[in-house]
TrEMBL record:
This is GNAT family N-acetyltransferase. SUPFAM superfamilies: Acyl-CoA N-acyltransferases (Nat). GO terms for molecular function: acyltransferase activity. It holds the Pfam family Acetyltransf_3. It comes from Kineococcus halophytocola.
Length: 200
């Protein structure tokens, strides 16, 4: 298995990223049920009854070397508040995409996303020596697009009619990236945001 696909534990001041396992199913069922998060039409979030299968899928992809999945745990309450991954692992480059991420609505605008991204990007650029990290999101997911742009990522383009979603609608996928040369400035920006409270 590629080192990139190894979801090593990562800990900050607000969150702990734990290798995803079946033990996180109960917490993640509560996350996707909060404010009917799983009904968000422009992103793929499992319904509560689908959480176990989604965990199994991600762990299987980890074993195959194409994904490193984590559960995100808040340190202030101890509760699981979301999940995230390294996906589309290209170990020979090396390059990864950070994606398949969702958080409980109560965890949003708390600095949890900013610190999670700081931990993941530090892992990618400093431990794994990735040359680039990619982010993808639905054209209509304006909150996600704004959050990615606030990281300092550059929009590379839009893949039009890129995917067919379960409801039959077509997804236009917006692609962003951060390259290794940009990482010091991105890191400084994230640290500054977190020092000021870290909204998003």
């Amino acid at each position: 298995m590629s080192e990139i696909a190894d979801p090593v534990p990562l800990t900050g001041d607000r969150v702990a990223l734990e290798p995803l396992s079946a033990a996180h199913a109960h917490g993640l069922r509560a996350v996707v049920a909060e404010d009917d998060l799983h009904r968000t039409w422009y992103t793929r979030i499992p319904a509560p009854e689908q959480v176990d299968a989604e965990i199994e899928r991600r762990v299987r992809l980890q074993r195959e070397g194409t994904m490193a999945p984590w559960a995100v745990r808040r340190l202030d309450t101890g509760a699981v508040c979301g999940t995230t991954t390294f996906m589309n692992v290209q170990a020979d480059v090396p390059r990864v995409e950070i994606g398949s991420t969702f958080y409980a609505p109560s965890a949003q605008r708390t600095g949890i996303n900013a610190e999670t991204k700081l931990l993941l990007l530090t892992r990618a650029f400093e431990d794994l020596r990735c040359i680039a990290v990619e982010f993808r999101t639905h054209w209509h997911n304006h909150a996600s697009r704004a959050a990615i742009a606030r990281l300092g990522a550059h929009q590379d383009g839009v893949l039009r009619s890129h995917q067919v979603l379960p409801d039959g609608s077509l997804r236009d996928t917006v692609v962003f990236s951060i390259v290794a040369a940009e990482w010091p400035a991105v890191r400084a920006g994230l640290r500054h945001r977190l020092a000021r409270g870290g909204a998003r």
